[in-house]
Amino acid sequence: PPSPLQGGVSSSETLLGHLLSFHLLGPFLLREDVLSLRMCSRVLSRSVNDIISSSWYFNWDRISQEDRPLARTTMRWSQIRNVNLTDPPINCIPEGITYVHFHRDCNVTQVMPFIQQFPSLRAIDVLDVDMEEDQDDNFLLHVAHTCPQLEILKLSASNLVDASVIELASCCPQLHTLILHAPSITDDAIIQLSQRCTHLRDVDLSRCTNLTDSAIIQLAEHCTGLEHINLSASKLISDVSITHIAQHCPSLRIINLAKCKRISSKSISQLASRCTQLESINLRNCTQVVKNKPSSSSSDDPLAQLGASCPRLHTVNLGGCTKLTDETLAQMAASCARLSSIKVRHCDDITDHAVMELAQTCRQLEHVDLGWCYNVTDEAITQLARLCPRLRYVNITGCSDLTDEAIKQLA
Protein backbone atom coordinates (compact mmCIF):
# COMPACT_ATOMS: atom_id res chain seq x y z
CA PRO A 1 0.00 0.00 0.00
CA PRO A 2 1.21 3.55 -0.64
CA SER A 3 2.77 5.34 2.31
CA PRO A 4 1.08 8.57 3.42
CA LEU A 5 2.97 11.80 2.79
CA GLN A 6 2.37 15.40 3.78
CA GLY A 7 -1.25 16.49 3.77
CA GLY A 8 -2.47 12.92 3.61
CA VAL A 9 -1.50 12.60 -0.04
CA SER A 10 -0.26 9.12 -0.94
CA SER A 11 3.07 8.51 -2.63
CA SER A 12 1.18 7.22 -5.67
CA GLU A 13 -0.62 10.55 -5.96
CA THR A 14 2.70 12.37 -5.67
CA LEU A 15 4.09 10.21 -8.49
CA LEU A 16 1.09 11.04 -10.67
CA GLY A 17 1.58 14.71 -9.88
CA HIS A 18 5.21 14.55 -11.02
CA LEU A 19 4.25 12.73 -14.21
CA LEU A 20 1.74 15.44 -15.00
CA SER A 21 4.13 18.27 -14.13
CA PHE A 22 6.68 16.87 -16.58
CA HIS A 23 3.93 16.39 -19.22
CA LEU A 24 4.60 12.65 -19.36
CA LEU A 25 1.13 11.27 -18.60
CA GLY A 26 -1.22 13.89 -20.01
CA PRO A 27 -0.15 13.47 -23.67
CA PHE A 28 -0.48 9.68 -23.35
CA LEU A 29 -4.06 10.01 -22.16
CA LEU A 30 -4.85 12.54 -24.84
CA ARG A 31 -3.47 10.16 -27.44
CA GLU A 32 -5.14 7.01 -26.10
CA ASP A 33 -8.36 8.68 -24.86
CA VAL A 34 -8.60 5.97 -22.18
CA LEU A 35 -8.09 6.14 -18.44
CA SER A 36 -7.89 2.87 -16.50
CA LEU A 37 -7.57 2.89 -12.72
CA ARG A 38 -7.54 -0.89 -12.32
CA MET A 39 -5.95 -1.88 -9.01
CA CYS A 40 -5.48 1.80 -8.09
CA SER A 41 -8.43 2.24 -5.79
CA ARG A 42 -6.53 4.64 -3.48
CA VAL A 43 -5.43 6.96 -6.26
CA LEU A 44 -8.45 9.25 -6.21
CA SER A 45 -7.67 12.84 -5.40
CA ARG A 46 -6.16 16.02 -6.75
CA SER A 47 -3.71 14.44 -9.19
CA VAL A 48 -6.32 12.16 -10.72
CA ASN A 49 -8.63 15.12 -11.26
CA ASP A 50 -5.91 16.68 -13.40
CA ILE A 51 -5.60 13.48 -15.40
CA ILE A 52 -9.33 13.16 -15.92
CA SER A 53 -9.60 16.75 -17.14
CA SER A 54 -7.40 15.79 -20.12
CA SER A 55 -9.26 12.57 -21.00
CA TRP A 56 -12.73 11.94 -22.37
CA TYR A 57 -13.23 8.27 -21.46
CA PHE A 58 -13.76 7.05 -17.90
CA ASN A 59 -14.31 3.47 -16.74
CA TRP A 60 -16.46 3.67 -13.62
CA ASP A 61 -16.05 -0.07 -13.07
CA ARG A 62 -12.38 0.46 -12.22
CA ILE A 63 -13.32 2.33 -9.04
CA SER A 64 -13.85 0.23 -5.93
CA GLN A 65 -17.22 0.43 -4.20
CA GLU A 66 -15.74 2.16 -1.16
CA ASP A 67 -14.15 4.88 -3.30
CA ARG A 68 -17.15 5.66 -5.48
CA PRO A 69 -18.67 8.25 -3.11
CA LEU A 70 -15.36 10.15 -3.24
CA ALA A 71 -15.22 9.86 -7.00
CA ARG A 72 -18.74 11.24 -7.36
CA THR A 73 -17.85 14.38 -5.42
CA THR A 74 -14.25 15.12 -6.54
CA MET A 75 -13.91 14.14 -10.17
CA ARG A 76 -14.24 16.74 -12.90
CA TRP A 77 -16.99 14.96 -14.78
CA SER A 78 -17.58 17.92 -17.09
CA GLN A 79 -14.61 16.90 -19.24
CA ILE A 80 -15.72 13.29 -19.73
CA ARG A 81 -17.87 12.17 -22.65
CA ASN A 82 -17.63 8.35 -22.55
CA VAL A 83 -18.53 6.32 -19.47
CA ASN A 84 -18.42 2.58 -18.76
CA LEU A 85 -21.02 1.79 -16.13
CA THR A 86 -22.07 -1.00 -13.82
CA ASP A 87 -23.84 1.11 -11.20
CA PRO A 88 -24.97 4.20 -13.12
CA PRO A 89 -24.26 7.26 -10.90
CA ILE A 90 -26.94 9.40 -12.52
CA ASN A 91 -26.76 12.23 -10.02
CA CYS A 92 -23.14 13.13 -10.76
CA ILE A 93 -22.80 12.61 -14.51
CA PRO A 94 -23.13 15.81 -16.57
CA GLU A 95 -25.57 16.36 -19.40
CA GLY A 96 -22.74 16.34 -21.92
CA ILE A 97 -22.24 12.58 -21.77
CA THR A 98 -22.59 11.17 -25.28
CA TYR A 99 -21.40 7.54 -25.05
CA VAL A 100 -22.40 4.99 -22.45
CA HIS A 101 -21.37 1.35 -22.22
CA PHE A 102 -23.40 -0.70 -19.76
CA HIS A 103 -21.62 -3.58 -18.07
CA ARG A 104 -23.02 -7.11 -18.05
CA ASP A 105 -23.99 -6.68 -14.38
CA CYS A 106 -26.54 -4.03 -15.33
CA ASN A 107 -30.15 -4.88 -15.99
CA VAL A 108 -32.85 -3.21 -18.03
CA THR A 109 -34.48 -1.64 -14.98
CA GLN A 110 -31.24 0.30 -14.39
CA VAL A 111 -30.49 1.12 -18.00
CA MET A 112 -33.82 2.59 -19.11
CA PRO A 113 -34.09 5.28 -16.38
CA PHE A 114 -30.49 6.27 -17.06
CA ILE A 115 -31.14 6.73 -20.77
CA GLN A 116 -34.24 8.77 -19.95
CA GLN A 117 -32.02 11.28 -18.15
CA PHE A 118 -29.68 11.74 -21.13
CA PRO A 119 -31.64 12.26 -24.36
CA SER A 120 -28.53 13.70 -26.06
CA LEU A 121 -26.80 10.32 -26.02
CA ARG A 122 -25.21 9.52 -29.37
CA ALA A 123 -23.91 6.05 -28.56
CA ILE A 124 -25.36 3.25 -26.42
CA ASP A 125 -23.68 -0.09 -25.89
CA VAL A 126 -25.80 -2.73 -24.15
CA LEU A 127 -24.28 -5.67 -25.96
CA ASP A 128 -23.26 -7.29 -22.66
CA VAL A 129 -26.57 -6.69 -20.87
CA ASP A 130 -28.89 -9.68 -20.62
CA MET A 131 -32.30 -8.54 -21.75
CA GLU A 132 -35.31 -10.14 -20.12
CA GLU A 133 -37.50 -11.99 -22.58
CA ASP A 134 -40.35 -9.48 -22.49
CA GLN A 135 -38.14 -6.37 -22.39
CA ASP A 136 -36.41 -6.45 -25.79
CA ASP A 137 -38.96 -4.42 -27.70
CA ASN A 138 -39.74 -2.07 -24.80
CA PHE A 139 -36.07 -1.21 -24.50
CA LEU A 140 -35.51 -0.56 -28.20
CA LEU A 141 -38.66 1.57 -28.44
CA HIS A 142 -37.54 3.50 -25.35
CA VAL A 143 -34.16 4.21 -26.97
CA ALA A 144 -35.78 5.21 -30.27
CA HIS A 145 -38.18 7.68 -28.66
CA THR A 146 -35.68 9.10 -26.15
CA CYS A 147 -32.48 9.52 -28.18
CA PRO A 148 -33.23 10.95 -31.63
CA GLN A 149 -29.56 11.92 -32.13
CA LEU A 150 -28.37 8.34 -31.70
CA GLU A 151 -25.51 7.41 -34.03
CA ILE A 152 -24.22 4.15 -32.52
CA LEU A 153 -26.23 1.27 -31.07
CA LYS A 154 -24.89 -2.09 -29.90
CA LEU A 155 -27.62 -4.47 -28.80
CA SER A 156 -28.17 -8.19 -28.35
CA ALA A 157 -31.83 -9.16 -28.09
CA SER A 158 -33.32 -12.56 -28.77
CA ASN A 159 -36.97 -11.63 -29.07
CA LEU A 160 -37.14 -8.41 -31.07
CA VAL A 161 -39.91 -7.95 -33.60
CA ASP A 162 -39.47 -6.12 -36.90
CA ALA A 163 -41.72 -3.22 -35.85
CA SER A 164 -39.29 -2.15 -33.09
CA VAL A 165 -36.33 -2.02 -35.49
CA ILE A 166 -38.42 -0.07 -38.01
CA GLU A 167 -39.37 2.42 -35.29
CA LEU A 168 -35.70 2.84 -34.41
CA ALA A 169 -34.92 3.57 -38.05
CA SER A 170 -37.70 6.17 -38.21
CA CYS A 171 -36.65 7.97 -35.03
CA CYS A 172 -32.85 7.75 -35.39
CA PRO A 173 -31.93 8.47 -39.03
CA GLN A 174 -28.37 9.49 -38.06
CA LEU A 175 -27.38 5.93 -37.15
CA HIS A 176 -24.03 5.04 -38.68
CA THR A 177 -22.99 2.06 -36.52
CA LEU A 178 -25.32 -0.81 -35.68
CA ILE A 179 -24.44 -4.06 -33.96
CA LEU A 180 -27.70 -5.96 -33.77
CA HIS A 181 -27.70 -9.57 -32.63
CA ALA A 182 -31.38 -10.38 -33.08
CA PRO A 183 -32.17 -13.83 -34.50
CA SER A 184 -35.91 -13.18 -34.55
CA ILE A 185 -35.99 -10.27 -37.02
CA THR A 186 -36.67 -10.74 -40.73
CA ASP A 187 -35.86 -9.06 -44.02
CA ASP A 188 -38.52 -6.37 -43.57
CA ALA A 189 -36.73 -4.86 -40.57
CA ILE A 190 -33.41 -4.53 -42.40
CA ILE A 191 -35.02 -3.29 -45.62
CA GLN A 192 -36.78 -0.48 -43.76
CA LEU A 193 -33.63 0.26 -41.75
CA SER A 194 -31.55 0.49 -44.93
CA GLN A 195 -33.98 2.89 -46.58
CA ARG A 196 -34.18 5.23 -43.57
CA CYS A 197 -30.64 5.08 -42.15
CA THR A 198 -28.61 5.62 -45.29
CA HIS A 199 -25.52 6.79 -43.38
CA LEU A 200 -24.80 3.31 -42.03
CA ARG A 201 -21.08 2.52 -42.23
CA ASP A 202 -20.56 -0.25 -39.69
CA VAL A 203 -23.15 -3.05 -39.58
CA ASP A 204 -23.03 -6.32 -37.64
CA LEU A 205 -25.97 -8.66 -38.27
CA SER A 206 -24.05 -11.80 -37.42
CA ARG A 207 -26.80 -13.48 -35.42
CA CYS A 208 -29.72 -12.46 -37.60
CA THR A 209 -30.06 -15.90 -39.11
CA ASN A 210 -33.44 -15.31 -40.82
CA LEU A 211 -32.10 -12.71 -43.24
CA THR A 212 -32.02 -13.50 -46.95
CA ASP A 213 -30.48 -11.89 -50.01
CA SER A 214 -33.44 -9.49 -50.27
CA ALA A 215 -32.38 -7.65 -47.11
CA ILE A 216 -28.68 -7.46 -47.92
CA ILE A 217 -29.35 -6.25 -51.47
CA GLN A 218 -31.31 -3.30 -50.07
CA LEU A 219 -28.64 -2.63 -47.48
CA ALA A 220 -25.95 -2.48 -50.17
CA GLU A 221 -27.98 -0.32 -52.55
CA HIS A 222 -29.06 2.27 -49.96
CA CYS A 223 -26.01 2.35 -47.65
CA THR A 224 -23.25 2.79 -50.19
CA GLY A 225 -20.82 4.12 -47.59
CA LEU A 226 -20.55 0.76 -45.85
CA GLU A 227 -17.04 0.16 -44.52
CA HIS A 228 -17.54 -2.81 -42.19
CA ILE A 229 -20.14 -5.57 -42.45
CA ASN A 230 -20.47 -8.77 -40.43
CA LEU A 231 -22.82 -11.41 -41.83
CA SER A 232 -21.26 -14.46 -40.18
CA ALA A 233 -23.48 -17.53 -39.81
CA SER A 234 -26.02 -16.10 -42.28
CA LYS A 235 -27.06 -19.45 -43.69
CA LEU A 236 -29.46 -17.96 -46.26
CA ILE A 237 -27.05 -15.41 -47.75
CA SER A 238 -25.61 -16.27 -51.16
CA ASP A 239 -23.25 -14.84 -53.77
CA VAL A 240 -26.04 -12.49 -54.88
CA SER A 241 -25.72 -10.50 -51.64
CA ILE A 242 -21.94 -10.29 -51.70
CA THR A 243 -21.91 -9.28 -55.36
CA HIS A 244 -24.29 -6.42 -54.59
CA ILE A 245 -22.08 -5.30 -51.71
CA ALA A 246 -19.07 -5.36 -54.03
CA GLN A 247 -20.91 -3.38 -56.72
CA HIS A 248 -22.35 -0.68 -54.45
CA CYS A 249 -19.93 -0.33 -51.50
CA PRO A 250 -16.47 0.55 -52.85
CA SER A 251 -15.29 1.84 -49.45
CA LEU A 252 -15.65 -1.56 -47.80
CA ARG A 253 -12.68 -2.30 -45.50
CA ILE A 254 -13.79 -5.25 -43.36
CA ILE A 255 -16.12 -8.13 -44.20
CA ASN A 256 -16.94 -11.18 -42.11
CA LEU A 257 -18.60 -14.05 -43.95
CA ALA A 258 -17.66 -16.85 -41.56
CA LYS A 259 -19.96 -19.88 -41.84
CA CYS A 260 -21.80 -18.46 -44.85
CA LYS A 261 -22.01 -21.84 -46.54
CA ARG A 262 -23.56 -20.55 -49.78
CA ILE A 263 -20.74 -18.12 -50.58
CA SER A 264 -18.47 -19.22 -53.43
CA SER A 265 -15.36 -18.00 -55.23
CA LYS A 266 -17.57 -16.08 -57.68
CA SER A 267 -18.49 -13.35 -55.20
CA ILE A 268 -14.99 -13.24 -53.70
CA SER A 269 -13.69 -12.35 -57.16
CA GLN A 270 -16.19 -9.49 -57.25
CA LEU A 271 -14.96 -8.23 -53.88
CA ALA A 272 -11.37 -8.41 -55.08
CA SER A 273 -12.01 -6.42 -58.24
CA ARG A 274 -14.33 -3.76 -56.79
CA CYS A 275 -13.47 -3.31 -53.09
CA THR A 276 -9.83 -2.39 -53.40
CA GLN A 277 -9.67 -0.80 -49.92
CA LEU A 278 -10.35 -4.15 -48.26
CA GLU A 279 -8.22 -4.72 -45.16
CA SER A 280 -9.73 -7.80 -43.53
CA ILE A 281 -11.79 -10.74 -44.76
CA ASN A 282 -13.10 -13.68 -42.73
CA LEU A 283 -14.06 -16.74 -44.80
CA ARG A 284 -13.92 -19.29 -41.99
CA ASN A 285 -15.85 -22.44 -42.89
CA CYS A 286 -16.87 -21.05 -46.27
CA THR A 287 -16.23 -24.39 -47.90
CA GLN A 288 -17.20 -23.35 -51.42
CA VAL A 289 -14.80 -20.42 -51.64
CA VAL A 290 -11.76 -22.55 -52.44
CA LYS A 291 -11.85 -24.63 -55.61
CA ASN A 292 -11.02 -28.33 -55.63
CA LYS A 293 -8.13 -27.67 -57.99
CA PRO A 294 -6.05 -24.50 -57.84
CA SER A 295 -5.97 -22.30 -60.93
CA SER A 296 -2.93 -22.58 -63.14
CA SER A 297 -2.73 -18.79 -63.16
CA SER A 298 -2.84 -16.69 -59.99
CA SER A 299 -4.97 -14.12 -61.86
CA ASP A 300 -7.78 -16.69 -62.00
CA ASP A 301 -7.70 -17.53 -58.29
CA PRO A 302 -10.01 -15.32 -56.16
CA LEU A 303 -7.75 -15.48 -53.11
CA ALA A 304 -4.73 -14.43 -55.15
CA GLN A 305 -6.87 -11.68 -56.70
CA LEU A 306 -7.63 -10.34 -53.22
CA GLY A 307 -3.97 -9.87 -52.51
CA ALA A 308 -3.17 -8.38 -55.89
CA SER A 309 -6.11 -5.96 -55.98
CA CYS A 310 -6.31 -5.02 -52.29
CA PRO A 311 -2.93 -3.59 -51.23
CA ARG A 312 -4.17 -2.85 -47.69
CA LEU A 313 -5.23 -6.43 -47.00
CA HIS A 314 -3.62 -7.53 -43.73
CA THR A 315 -5.99 -10.07 -42.15
CA VAL A 316 -7.33 -13.26 -43.75
CA ASN A 317 -9.19 -16.11 -42.06
CA LEU A 318 -9.50 -19.31 -44.12
CA GLY A 319 -9.95 -21.67 -41.19
CA GLY A 320 -12.13 -24.65 -42.01
CA CYS A 321 -11.82 -24.16 -45.78
CA THR A 322 -11.03 -27.82 -46.15
CA LYS A 323 -10.32 -27.63 -49.90
CA LEU A 324 -7.49 -25.15 -49.39
CA THR A 325 -4.25 -26.44 -50.89
CA ASP A 326 -0.61 -25.46 -50.70
CA GLU A 327 -0.74 -24.06 -54.24
CA THR A 328 -3.71 -21.78 -53.50
CA LEU A 329 -2.25 -20.48 -50.24
CA ALA A 330 1.14 -19.93 -51.88
CA GLN A 331 -0.46 -17.97 -54.73
CA MET A 332 -2.29 -15.76 -52.23
CA ALA A 333 0.89 -15.22 -50.18
CA ALA A 334 2.78 -14.14 -53.29
CA SER A 335 0.45 -11.16 -53.69
CA CYS A 336 -0.12 -10.34 -49.97
CA ALA A 337 3.18 -8.96 -48.78
CA ARG A 338 1.45 -6.83 -46.11
CA LEU A 339 -0.33 -9.77 -44.53
CA SER A 340 -0.06 -9.65 -40.73
CA SER A 341 -2.64 -12.28 -39.72
CA ILE A 342 -3.48 -15.59 -41.40
CA LYS A 343 -5.68 -18.38 -40.07
CA VAL A 344 -5.80 -21.77 -41.77
CA ARG A 345 -6.94 -23.92 -38.88
CA HIS A 346 -8.36 -27.33 -39.86
CA CYS A 347 -7.02 -27.05 -43.42
CA ASP A 348 -5.75 -30.62 -43.61
CA ASP A 349 -3.93 -30.31 -46.94
CA ILE A 350 -1.63 -27.48 -45.87
CA THR A 351 1.99 -28.59 -45.57
CA ASP A 352 5.41 -27.06 -44.95
CA HIS A 353 5.52 -25.83 -48.54
CA ALA A 354 2.70 -23.28 -48.08
CA VAL A 355 3.84 -22.17 -44.63
CA MET A 356 7.39 -21.60 -45.85
CA GLU A 357 6.06 -19.58 -48.79
CA LEU A 358 4.09 -17.45 -46.32
CA ALA A 359 7.19 -16.89 -44.21
CA GLN A 360 9.30 -16.03 -47.25
CA THR A 361 6.82 -13.56 -48.74
CA CYS A 362 4.86 -12.14 -45.79
CA ARG A 363 7.61 -10.87 -43.50
CA GLN A 364 5.17 -8.71 -41.49
CA LEU A 365 3.25 -11.69 -40.10
CA GLU A 366 2.27 -11.31 -36.45
CA HIS A 367 -0.54 -13.86 -36.00
CA VAL A 368 -0.49 -17.34 -37.56
CA ASP A 369 -3.08 -20.03 -36.80
CA LEU A 370 -2.04 -23.49 -37.98
CA GLY A 371 -4.20 -25.43 -35.54
CA TRP A 372 -4.84 -29.02 -36.65
CA CYS A 373 -2.72 -28.72 -39.78
CA TYR A 374 -1.36 -32.22 -39.36
CA ASN A 375 1.25 -32.02 -42.11
CA VAL A 376 3.19 -29.04 -40.75
CA THR A 377 6.63 -29.96 -39.34
CA ASP A 378 9.50 -28.32 -37.49
CA GLU A 379 10.99 -27.05 -40.74
CA ALA A 380 8.04 -24.72 -41.44
CA ILE A 381 7.94 -23.36 -37.89
CA THR A 382 11.69 -22.75 -38.00
CA GLN A 383 11.25 -20.75 -41.19
CA LEU A 384 8.45 -18.69 -39.65
CA ALA A 385 10.53 -17.91 -36.57
CA ARG A 386 13.57 -16.97 -38.65
CA LEU A 387 11.93 -14.80 -41.31
CA CYS A 388 9.03 -13.15 -39.40
CA PRO A 389 10.50 -11.09 -36.55
CA ARG A 390 7.14 -9.49 -35.69
CA LEU A 391 5.53 -12.85 -34.92
CA ARG A 392 3.59 -12.65 -31.64
CA TYR A 393 1.07 -15.51 -31.81
CA VAL A 394 1.32 -18.97 -33.34
CA ASN A 395 -1.34 -21.63 -32.82
CA ILE A 396 0.05 -25.12 -33.41
CA THR A 397 -2.60 -27.06 -31.51
CA GLY A 398 -3.00 -30.54 -32.98
CA CYS A 399 0.13 -30.31 -35.16
CA SER A 400 1.22 -33.80 -34.18
CA ASP A 401 4.41 -33.86 -36.29
CA LEU A 402 6.05 -31.03 -34.36
CA THR A 403 8.80 -31.69 -31.83
CA ASP A 404 10.64 -29.73 -29.17
CA GLU A 405 12.76 -28.19 -31.92
CA ALA A 406 9.83 -26.12 -33.17
CA ILE A 407 9.20 -24.73 -29.70
CA LYS A 408 12.89 -23.86 -29.30
CA GLN A 409 12.82 -21.92 -32.54
CA LEU A 410 9.83 -19.90 -31.39
CA ALA A 411 11.30 -19.21 -27.96
The description of the largest β-sheet is:
14 strands, parallel
- Helix share of residues? 25-40%
Strand order of the largest sheet: 1-2-3-4-5-6-7-8-9-10-11-12-13-14
The number of helical segments is 16
- Range of strand content: 5-15%
- The tally of strands reads 14
The outline comes out as: globular
Beginning-to-end CA distance, first to last residue? 36 Å
Mean pLDDT: 84
User: Using only CA atoms, what is the Rg?
Assistant: 25 Å
Structural class: alpha/beta
Helix-strand pattern: HHHEHEEHEHEHEHEHEHEHEHEHEHEHEH
Low-confidence stretches: 1-35, 44-49, 51-56
Walk me through this protein's architecture.
This protein has 411 residues and is an alpha/beta fold. Helix content is 36%, strand content 12%. The chain contains 16 helices and 14 strands. Strands 1-2-3-4-5-6-7-8-9-10-11-12-13-14 form a 14-stranded parallel β-sheet, with no helix packed on it. α5 packs parallel to α6, α10 runs parallel beside α11 and α12 runs parallel beside α13. The longest helix has 11 residues. The two termini are 36 Å apart. The N terminus is likely disordered.
In a few lines, what is going on in this structure?
By secondary structure, the chain is α/β, with parallel strands linked by helices.
